[in-house]
Every structure is written in C-alpha cells, then in structure tokens.
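Review session, final week

We close the course with one last complete record, chosen because it touches almost every idea we covered. It is histidine kinase, a protein from Clostridium zeae with 460 residues. Go through it on your own first, then we will talk.
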Amino acid sequence: MKIKVNSIKSKFILSSILIFFFATVFLNIYLSSLLQKSYSNRIKRDCDILYSSSRDYIYRYAKLQSIDIDQTNIVYLAKSIAGGITSLNPTYIRILDKDLNVLCEVNKDLEREYILFSDDLKAARNNNATTTITKINNKYISSFSYGLYFNDNLVAIINFKSDYSYLFEEKNKIIFNLNIIMLLMFILFTVIIFYLTNRITNPLYKLINIVERISKGSYDTEINIKSNDEVGILASEFKVMQDNIKENLDTIKNLELYRRDFFNNVTHELKTPLTGIKLYSDLLEQNYNDTDLVITAADRIKNESNRLYSLVDNLLEVSKGKISKAQENLNEINIKPIAETIVSDMQLIASAKNIKIAYDISDIHVRAYTNHIVQLLINIIDNSIKYGLEGGNVYLSISRKDSLCNINIKNSKTNENVSTITGNGIGLFIVDSIVTKLSGSLIIKNTLNTFEVNIKIPCL
C-alpha cells in the first residue's frame, strides 16, 4: 500500500513539474518569438525610413541639379549623393553600380570586418528592397539594399549597413531575466506542489497505516486526521466504521462469554440431577432388598428425572430462540426441608471419601425460586466435598440474623489454590450468580487448612 501511495504522489509531482516545465519552455519560446518579431519590425521601420528619405533626397538632388542620373554620371555623383544621405541619416552607406562594383562609401565607425557582401545586393538588382541580418563575431549587422531607377533604368544599388547588436543584447537580457524569473517560479511551484501533495497524501498514508493496524486486530488505534476536505470526511466516516466494528466485536466477545457461561451452567445443571440418579441407581443395585431404600431411591430418581426433563425442555426452548421464564413461581420457600433433603443426598456422595456432613439448619423462609435454592446448596456442598480432606468433616450452618439468612459451610481443604470463585470451578460461579439475583452477598475465607463460604440473603 505504501508503494501505491508513493507511486501516486510521485506521478502527481512528476506530472505537475513536467506540465510547468513545458509551459515554461513554451512561454519562453513564445516571448522570444514576440521579441524577435518586434525587433524585426523595428529594423524594417528603420529601413523604410532610410528607403524613403534617401530616395526623396536623390530625386530632389537630381531636380535641383536639373540632371537625369544615369549609369554614366552616377560614377561622378555618387560621392556627393552619399554624403548628403549620411547627413540626414548618419549610418554606413555605399553606392554600387548595377554590376555591384562599389562607386562610393561613407563609413561611420563600422569596422571593415562587418562590411561583407550580402544577399540583399543581388535582390536589389531585381528591383527588390531587401534587408538581411547577419551575425558576425557576436554582432548583429543589418544590411538594407534597393535599386535606384531613373526613367525605368537601373542606375545604381544603394546599400545601408547598421549595427543592431544592442537590440539583440537587449532581447537576450530580457530572455535571461525571464529565464531567471521562470526558474524561481519553477522552484516555488515545485515547493508548493510538494507541500500540497504531502498535505493530500500524508493523511491518506496515515489512514492506510491505521487500516493495516486494524486489519491485524488493533481496533483501539486512534484516527487523528484533522482536515476539512474529502480526506477528513473519509477519515471521519472510517472512524465511525471503526467504532461500529469495535462495538460489534465487543458484542461478539460478550456473546462468546455468555455462550461459554451458558454452556458451563447448563453442564452443571444437567450434572446435578444426573449425579443424584446415578447415585441412587448404584445404591439400588447394591441394596435392592432394602424396602425403605428402594422407596426413597425411587422417589428421588423420579424427582431428579422430572427436574432433568424440565431442564432439557427449557434448553429446547432456548435453542429455538426463545428465552423462557422459569416454570415455577417466585414464592415463599422454607429452606430447612430443602437443605435437609440435599444434605441427605450429598452424604451418600461424601461417604465415598469418608467425609461426614455435620449440619445445623433453622426454619427460615425466603422469597426465591426453589430451583435456585437447590442449585445454591448443592453447589456449595458439592464443592466442599470435592475439595475436602478425605476422612474429614463438612460443617453446614443455616441461621437467621438481622432479617438475613446466613448460610455458612466450612471444610478442611486439600487444595491450597482453592481461594476464588473461578478457582473453585463453575460451582461457586453459579452460586455467585444466584446470590446476586437474590440481592445477597458472598464471602469466601481461605486459610492454610480450611476453606469457608458465607452467604447472606434476605429472609422473610
């Protein structure tokens, strides 16, 4: 991506510089052409003045002398005519016969090296007034010639030469100064182009870097692009998109946490009745002749099966996208009979580790779901048995104090790392959730040899 941005930036800068360069060259050529045309017109005007003034002088001279100038007397009159013309126009002049032989010349400080034969002399023989400009040793010499006619006969060739180097030096100076100005403008233009290009592409470059970081999972990357143009709008819209992505990801994470918690809760919910069913099934298999045990086990298996069926039915409702409320009503519950039944059941599990459950349970009424109380008691007793010291004791106490039901369970532990809800597995997590729903509190005390859970919930 960086290569693409740099490529666009380079192309834009290069294109702008080339456009300005060619525009500068074109302007330079155009202005040079205008100056050349202007100076050529000036030289032409000067030549026209020479042509007009010199012809008028010669014709007036012939009229005053009452003579007709011809090829014979021009040889004698040439010097006088040339002198008169130079008095009016102080420039180099020479008069040649029709065969281009020099009859007379008047030189006003023009060096001999610049007085050369030029093509305008030949053109003058054909009755064409012509001007040529020749560069000789860095000087620009203008040569103007025309044919002098009397009675329609070519009598002589009049030739003027002038140094116009100052005009071309002026032109070169103007072009040089123009080039300096163009160079300064080119530098300024290049700096401005670099500045504007960087101002346009740098935010894009930053935005692309941000996109790269976001694509790698860094969704907290801050977009700090302050601009009032389209790039700023793009950055603003992208920030909105970034916030939406982040919000959706947070939602997905929360849903994943909810899914995991839901799965763990469901697993534990299903495990509790299944544990009871398996426990009483094993007891029936070992003591099928004990009539009282058979009656008790059958009743417990039936109750646990009904609870398991209810859980599965609720899960089916959830799988269809329905969040069903508990089938039982929130009502007044006496904790004592529920707790005694659970202790009796859990004692069978505890006996496998030679653990004895000692309990002191008072008649206490609370407003809750029966299933919540069952889950709460099963989980804290099950955890105490699971992490209890083999051959040790579990102490359960349920009492009333200051309108609160105090549920306390303590055991001698085997695992020193059992110190937090998460450390105790999902059981105490479920307990914490239930206590929160009942507006109660949960306190865990961990010492070197014992682990204690104390629960307080409002009572009636």
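Two points worth writing down before the exam:
The first strand starts at residue 92 and ends at 96.
The chain has two domains: 2-172, 261-458.
Good luck, everyone.
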